[in-house]
Write a structure and sequence with these properties.
Blueprint: H1 2-13, H2 18-29, E1 32-33, E2 38-39, E3 43-51, E4 56-57, E5 62-71, E6 76-79, E7 82-84, E8 88-91, E9 96-99, E10 102-104, E11 118-121, E12 126-129, E13 132-134, E14 139-141, E15 146-150, E16 153-154, E17 165-167, E18 172-173, E19 178-179, E20 184-185, E21 189-191, E22 196-197, E23 206-209, E24 214-218, H3 221-228
Parallel strand pairs: 1-3, 2-4, 3-5, 4-6, 5-7, 5-8, 6-9, 7-10, 8-11, 9-12, 10-13, 11-14, 12-15, 13-16, 14-17, 15-18, 16-19, 17-20, 18-21, 19-22, 21-23
Antiparallel strand pairs: 23-24
Length: 239
């Protein structure tokens, strides 16, 4: 009952303009909210919450049941995203989550191993639209990596156990990608549309594609330029 009341209060707070939300979150819930933070009609429920300077959260997002939520400076969350559960969700500075993404951790999963339900999105990284990420176990995405296109899914659990997923920095992951529990990607790689990653891959600077995914070829100089190009025009040279 107490938690339901908390959610009702937070839902009501979602209707407030940003300049009132900031002091409300600080005083009533102990959230640490930086300068120039703007939050639309969105529900933010976390036991610990830190929103750094110049964070932008759009409309109709639901961030709920999170133990510790940290959003770095200048990070942006678009519209109609769901982020649910887990011990920790960390969104790096200048990172961006677009729209219609579902980032979810299953509470109290029935598995044979210990779980680590944490989601880390590295500084300057981007998740575009319509993706599903299960972080019942740890999901870690490095800096300036793009989960591009639409409809990719990352899964850390199956019926009996979980395994983490780790993705390196400066990589581009195309549409309709599937990453199975324990799958992983190195830094500076491109993943072709429709690939299925079933294990940890280690070769950097390469094109990865196929079912199951494998190294296809080394990236050309032009390809390397593309993966190293800034993910946002306002991205600082040093993160």
């Amino acid at each position: 009952m107490k938690y339901k009341l908390r959610l009702l209060v937070l839902a009501a707070a979602a209707l407030l303009p940003s300049f009132l939300k900031r002091p409300f979150y600080r005083v009533c819930f102990g959230y640490r909210v930086g300068k120039n933070v703007r939050i639309g009609l969105s529900l933010i429920d976390a036991r610990e919450c830190e929103l750094a300077d110049d964070v932008r959260v759009g409309h109709f997002n639901v961030l709920i049941g999170i133990q510790k939520l940290t959003i770095g400076d200048h990070a942006r969350i678009g519209h109609l995203n769901v982020v649910r559960g887990g011990d920790e969700v960390s969104i790096g500075r200048y990172a961006e989550i677009g729209r219609l993404n579902e980032i979810n951790s299953i509470p109290d999963p029935i598995v044979v191993n210990a779980v680590d339900p944490r989601f880390f999105l590295g500084a300057g990284s981007v998740i575009t639209a319509g993706h599903k990420i299960d972080f019942t176990d740890r999901v870690e995405i490095g800096e300036r990596t793009i989960l591009g296109g639409r409809n990719s899914s990352l899964w850390t659990h199956n019926r009996q156990r979980t395994m983490p997923i780790v993705i390196g920095s400066l990589s581009y992951i195309g549409s309709e990608i599937r990453i199975a529990p324990g799958g992983g990607l190195p830094s500076r790689c491109v993943v072709g549309i429709g690939s299925v990653i079933t294990k940890k891959l280690d070769d950097e600077n390469c094109l990865i594609a196929g079912v199951p995914a494998r190294r296809v070829k080394e990236l050309s100089e032009e390809d390397r330029f593309l993966v190293e190009y800034k993910t946002r025009p306002d991205l600082p040279d040093t993160l």
